[in-house]
Amino acid sequence: MSDDEFHAKFEQVLPTKTKVCSELQVGDHVLLKSSPCKIGELSNSGPDVHIVGIDIFTGEKIEDTARSTECMDIPEVHRGDYAMMNKGTRPTSS
Predict the structure, then answer these.
(1) Backbone phi, psi, residue 85, to 5°
(2) Reduced to 3 states, what is the DSSP secondary structure of residue 58?
(3) Beta bridge partners of 30
(4) Domain total for the chain?
(5) How many whole angstroms separate alpha carbon 32 and alpha carbon 38?
C-alpha cells in the first residue's frame, strides 16, 4: 500500500475535532497535510501561524502555514502501554 493510499483510507475513518489555529499549543496533536502530527514548534508571522509537527506514525517532520483564524482538524490520539506476557518462539521450517 502506498503512502497516498494509506492516507486516503486513514482520512475516512479518523475521528477529529476542530480548533482555531490561534489556540494551538506545542504538544497538541493536529492534522498537517493529512498526517496526524504532534506539534513541536509554533510561530506567528502577521496573520499566519507556522506549524512544525512530527508525524506520530513515521517520525517525519512536516511543516505547514495557516491563517490564525483557520480551523484545523485535531485527531483523537490514544496511547496505550502494554506488557508482553510470553515471548514464545516461532517454529522454523526445515
Answers:
(1) -90, -40
(2) coil
(3) 37
(4) 1
(5) 9
- pTM of this prediction? 0.69
Each residue's pLDDT, cut to its tens digit, for the chain (94 residues) gives 566 665 555 555 567 889 999 999 999 999 999 899 999 999 998 899 999 999 999 999 999 999 999 999 998 888 788 888 877 766 666 5
Cβ-based neighbours of 26, under 8 Å, separated by 6 or more: 39, 40, 41, 42
Distance, CA of 90 to CA of 72 (rounded, Å) = 45
Assigned domain for 54 exists: yes
Q: CA 77, CA 16: separation in Å to the nearest integer?
A: 9
Cell of 84: 508482553
Domain residues for the domain of 8 are 3-75
Residue 42 C-alpha cell reads as: 509554533
Residues 6+ apart with CB under 8 A from 44: 50, 68
87 falls within a domain: no
